[in-house]
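Record type: monomer structure entry
Structure origin: computed from sequence
Chain ID: A
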Amino acid sequence: MKSIIFGCLVLLAGCPQMEPLDGNRVISGFDAGLQPSLDAGFPADSGTAKPDSGAEDVGVNELDDHSDEREGATRLQPWQQIAGSLDGDGDVDWFTFTAGVGDLHRIETRGQVDTRCGLVDAQGEEIDSNDDDGEQFNCRIEAELIGGAEYFVRVQHFSAGGSGIYTLHVEIIAVQEIAPQISVEPDQANAGESFSFSGTGFSPQARVELQVASGGLQTEQHEAVADDEGNFMYVWQTRRDTRPGSFQVVALDQDSGLRSSSLEVTVLAAPEDDHSDGRQQATAIVFGRFTPGEIHQEADVDWFRFRSNRLGEWVLYTRGSLDTVCTLFLDADQVARDDDDGAGLNCQIAHELVAGRDYFIKVESYGTRIGDYELVVVPPPVPDDHGNDRVRATVMAESSSASGEIGAALDVDVFGFTAALTGDYSLKTIGLTDTRCSLTDVQGRELQSDDNSGLLWNCQINARLDAGSTYYFHVRHSDDDGTGRYWLFLEAPQGTRSDDHGNSVEAATLVADQGLTPGNIEVGGDLDVFHFFATSGGARVIETSSDVDTVCRLLNAQGVEIAANDDAGEGHNCRISADLQAGLRYFVEVKLFLRSATGTYRLRLSAAE
């Protein structure tokens, strides 16, 4: 639940009237937009100009008060006002701010000027723009923003030749007042069974830490990830040796720092039989894991249940030395039964199931045999979400996350990234899937591998990596037949890189063979180098979009030039069309035509139309 709060956010007691900031100036009297017809710098202007840092007041000095470029934007904070002047001749004023904890922000100008404004994210993509939604002819934008993220505001006159004074306001008009909530089903279960937690009101895509505590025991920590709506689900699987008693569970939103209220769940003593002899108390199965079972005495049977999440052929089987018989039910109706179609004397059933239905499995031994076994349930394969090798790897940015699914037996998901800084990196998965991971260099040499160093059955690799080098992170299931979903987190060391992209093929930045990448020629003579693998053969277009004069070259894996261009793109941008061979590595160099020039651009790789 969210409340809409208009006006001033009350932090202590009341809200003081704020004097607008005017870049280097503060204006009073007529020189505040009250009588713009007199505010033209003529001697008849009886307003008083008050420099606040030694600079002359607008209307006296023709120097631009705010940068015309996003890179030099004037900084302000939510709830702060700042004055600006548009002096005609296409003048544009840029501002930047860090979004506050409230999710709904209002950006608007006030005054007698007919303004047009735009809201741009940190990557330079325009989020929204507006002309006259504010008072009179002022612009106004209301947008849900991410707390802590950087945004830019562009202010200009409706007419390219227009001029005048305005005040820019950035305000939070809706703030989150209610802490996130969690619920659980059931609230008590036997040791060895599971609890299902649901959460609402968390930050979108936030990492959520669940803390499970009981007196005299070390607090367990589990991690989940909220979806785009701020909701999550997590299954806490207890063990048969989990100590009976009460447990307190709280969820921490790691983005906002807010905690949910505490829930209490009760773990009961494990029954002598590890799995119920009746369908009503069947053990719930979690995909991506293998459920152990034991036929501990003659005539013992074990019941399991699961809910199918998609249509298709599901495979369920046991493995081990016990001669098993398994039966599949839809509710109370028998669907299939098998004795020895699995390996050895194990049972195996392959059957097309309906999505969204509850199925039950009964496992028993043949004759009077007793012993241990493992039950495996394999859902139908899903389309591969991430490539299985470095050619089709998903390219990640530093300090980012991605969801993944091991969708079929032996599926491998590969992620590639270029280290911006030399330092300690952490790569890990979270979730209920038993993952195994490895880290390789661009030549495919394995640098490190791990199985269960993360939470629960997750893998985690901590490694010191070199700036400018490209690495690949491989994720698979620990068992060849295993499937399941996971979240991958890449955490990089803190710091700022002086050059956004390397200057040589050895330090090239990895990019996808279709996509957009921002670049910056920070100093005269700078060269930006990128590399990619062609996922398919055929014609490709490599081009830039910018306001500067770019030159680009396409090289093969050995560094030999394939093509080069200066001005074939729009304006003075470079553009190369070339036929590429699937699976091969290529390099792209970008520089500016004038060696002394600097500026930003965006590199685009796409298939030729």
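Annotation 1: DSSP finds no helices and 47 strands in the chain.
Annotation 2: Residues 119 and 153 are 5 Å apart (CA to CA).
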